[in-house]
Amino acid sequence: LSRDCIVCTGTTDSIAAFLAARVAEPGKA
User: Fold this and answer.
1) 3-state SS string over 1-29?
2) How far apart are CA 3 and CA 28, in angstroms?
3) What pTM value is reported for the model?
């Protein structure tokens, strides 16, 4: 998760949400 957090910091909200959706279980996002 630490690596994903670093990536999300440099991405836009849209991409960050997309990455978060991939990490979280489907239906939660």
Assistant:
1) CHHHHHHHHCCCHHHHHHHHHHHCCCCCC
2) 21
3) 0.33
CA distance 18 to 14: 6
User: Is 4 within 8 Å of 15 (Cβ atoms)?
Assistant: no
Count the Cβ atoms, other than its own, within 10 Å of residue 4: 13
Encode pLDDT of 8-28 as tens digits: 555 577 777 777 777 656 655
Rounded to the nearest 10°, the torsion over CA 22, 26, 27, 29 is -10
What is the C-alpha to C-alpha distance for residues 29 and 14, in angstroms, rounded to an integer? 12
